[in-house]
Please model this.
Amino acid sequence: MKSPAPKSFFPGPVLVCLPFLVLYLITALPGLGWRDTPEFASTAWTLGIAHPAGFPTFNLATKVLTYLPLGSIPFRVTLAAALFGAAILFVLYGLIVRGSAIVGRDDPDDPGIRWAAAIAVTVFGLSGTLWTNSTEPEVYTLNTLLLGITLYCALRWSADGREAWLCAGGLIYGLAAGNHGSVAFYVPGFLVYVLLHSSSRVGRNLLLLLFFFLVGFSVYLYLPIRGSADPPLDFGHPVTLERFLMHITDRKDAADHFDGVRKGHYLARHTWLFLTETTPRLFWPLGLPLLLAGAVRVWRRDWPLLTALFWASLADVLFFIRWTSQPAAFLPAYFFTAFFCGLGLVWLVGRIEAPPWLKPTRAQAAGAALLVLVLAGGVWLVYPQQDRSATFLPGESFRSDYERMAPDAISLTGVQWFHQRAFQDVYRLRDDVTAISLADFTFPWFYSPITQARFPRVVVPAGDVNYQAGQGWFLKRFLEANLDRKRDIYWEPFDLKGGVFSRHLKPELDLLFKVTPRPVDRLSPEETRAALGRLREKIEREIATEGFYEAEELDVYYVLMLFQYAFYFSRHGQIGAAMATLRFLEDLYGPEGANRMLPADHAALNINMGLMLASEQRWGEAVPRFEAALDHARGNFRFWFGLGLSLMKTGRLAKARSALERAAGLAPYDPETRLYLGDVFRLQGDTARARAAYERAWHLAREPRTKMEIKERLGELGG
Amino acid sequence: MKIGRIARIVIGLAAALAVLAGVMEMRAREELARARQARDGSETDLALKHYSRALNWYVPGGAAETAAEDLLELGLARDRAGRAREATLALMRMRSGLYGARSFYLPRRDLIERAEPVLARLRAREKLGPEATEADTARQARVYLDLMRAPGRPAFWPALAASAGFLIWVVSALGFIFRFFGRENRVAWPWAAVWAAGFVLWLWGMKWA
Model:
């Protein structure tokens, strides 16, 4: 009688994924995060409508978990993201086991395959990309999970030809489209896969796929139905066909789609960043050989699969390339990469011949030790960076101002809109305050038009909300009507540079402004000092005690708001305060501070600093500012003009001429450039060229004052 | 999926949630201790911050509820002492913290019901100023109290119907697919019926939530 073979041990998917679920949960954000995360917390709880394309699948799937009586509602939305993150690993395990046949390992019960899958899943689970996405209330883990399930269905269908898998894949893909619109760009890849794997009945397969895709896609019925129910957060109010289409195709940000690709110089820079910084350094020595091994094996046996996933990854990377410095970007692409790496590992493990002295039990023990080592080492290395459980700043930073608003206040918001909506919808904080997005006034066709039914506690004047919306016609009437009722109206520091409203604003509380019934002609130095002091005190407090510098994406808010303060001070004649604000901003985020100001923001800081220094006639200090701004955007007329003028004032005439000629080339119809170019020629003693430049300026000028100035210059030349 | 595997997943999820609940309770206790230390040191703003954070780690019957009780006491004490700003903040944070932790029930409704009339009166006084008569203040406080007690959105049962209906129709659609297109000719129509029922429930819930 033969003794039974020793039962082989290998870690199953539940055992591998469970530690990650726990890790993600205990390192998750405790409450609100930055950017879209307060919005998702709010829309998941209230079944509201988020920014385009609306994210109905996420809201509905996450709503269920908001009933779990544990932590705050935003934390439960994060808990859903963590659960989806762990489920991604579960699916990845299944995909690697299922895909092992493609790389020539036909026995899915082979322990070697399971060990390889477990190690690949463990390494991917430790990646910053998945970990970050799993610890904040965001949509990307659900997105990748649905894509992973779709891929699993595709592999099962192509392996055994059962139509059920094809139909299930179509349904899940439709739901994925309802979770994130970017999956639309992966369609060609998946379609090519289905077509090339359909040995017969191509038409029937496509029809089934389309039908079940539409079943899944019907999740978008959520938008018009919820829109008509008037939820608290109703982004875009997609209740008509036109608004619905505008919302799901994201017309609002159409100019930004793939703009990282369309602007060639950005693409090169982002791609370089992607290859050298975003893609983990560890990936190159370890991951790349495995990826290549997996990809080559798949190419030989199932090239449509490689083509489809390469296409999907490329679409994902190109769509999000602008966010390449974000730790959470490119999750689907990395997921597909992990799949190929896992297959590469499966193939490699199959190639290794076990030495005769290595018994199966010892091999399994070695595998277990390796897995534990990878997990423990990875957690030891990554945990401190990924632990966000004490990050309360996103929920608290804007709360203090909001709490201190006067009773029955109206809060007009820009980037704080999502936070204030979460304060109201999730926390029921200050039911007496009416929070309205400024974009509802200025872009009512993309956002939600202001109506009395939406805001019953404020006066909504009669009139067409669309009429001169960009110029704030309706907003002006709204402000007048409510100021007449003695309502306190707060205005987030947002869009003040060209705005007509900044004359009616005064700094109030820590960050906000208050609308004044009469124009503020000139801000007193005391008021300016007090406002700057409050700003500094708040930020310095947050630096000292709240991990201000560790907070990812906080700079998006503060860079924007501090710029607005500088513009505000500048418009009110407080150039010194404006420059102090810009210097403060530079100290916070420039090379001296966190050193993470975006190049475009740094250029804006330099150009504004240059212009302010120039207005103070501090030409020598202005020159390096303009030069620094030009490093970022060499095609900007204003930068060249400012540089030329400053150089002329400091007596560097040859360089001034060159800069002004560049400016004239970029803006050939600008009279001022010609005027100063004439000045440079005159100072260089080239009277003929100076005259020609003045005469050109005369022809271009429209303003009587400018014409008079040019005439005087021509008179001075004589002749 | 085999029953054994489903059981393993369910047990695994339950274990993960149990670990999480334990960690959350520990964090709530730490925040509560910091809040009490700050309160005893008369650093009211700091105490309020840590009480709010303790509430964020709500576990039924845990330290978060104690933090809410402390906040109520602190708010009432500050109100009696005439320190309106601190009283308002304490009561507001307690109320919003508990609302932020609501699920199929609102935790510690009793505390909220005690805090709201005081909060409404404080807000009315802030709006009307010290020269307002008692009657005017009471009238204005009534407005704020009604506002605080107005039912929140979305309506509970329709919202539950929308999310449950969604899960039902997705799962039953998949069930239908694997029955109808499966190799064995198994009966598929009950799945189609549940799918349709789930879809209708979903639509109804979305309309009325």
